[in-house]
Known about the structure:
Layout: E1 7-9, E2 16-18, H1 35-39, H2 42-67, E3 80-92, E4 95-106, E5 112-122, E6 128-136, E7 145-154, E8 163-173
Antiparallel strand pairs: 1-2, 3-4, 4-7, 5-6, 5-8
The structure holds zinc ion (ZN).
Amino acid sequence: MGEARRTKTCRLCYMEIDARAEKCPYCQQWQHRLALTTVRPAIPSLIGLAVMVAVLGFAAYTGRRLWWSGEDFANHAGELTVTGSRMDFWNVNGGLRAMVVGKLRNKGSVPWKYIELECQFYDAEGKLVDVGHESHSGTVLSHGEAAFSVGFDADLPREAYVGHQVIVRAARDARSGW
Length: 178
Ligand SMILES: [Zn+2]
């Protein structure tokens, strides 16, 4: 009873070949494990593609954070208001300087930065006589409050400034990247 000849099937052409064969005599395909990757290049390239997609996805996510301009203030203007402001006047170097201090209250859920304040001044008849613009450098957190002070050179005599009003004209979402 002779020893039966052991065979295996070629992994590429599926011909019966000697079990010890390292290379198929029919199609010349190497039979060891690593050979699999050489006949199926789609597998490593799929891994490469997956890695590339992951890297691009991460870049897009961080890029969005960097370039995102945030919520539009126009849609939230009523949420950021000035409360309890008052004005004072000082003679500085021969000129009159107006100073308005108050608090900014944020009733909304968006934190704001680069807040542009417009300060309007009225005379005794309620007529608008002067205006000043200044930006508040700090951030007002959502449902938060912050004090501000803005100073202007007053061009009119002290008596002309009877009333005042501070209006928030613009602001930028503090979560935006720039
Ligand atoms: Zn073969």
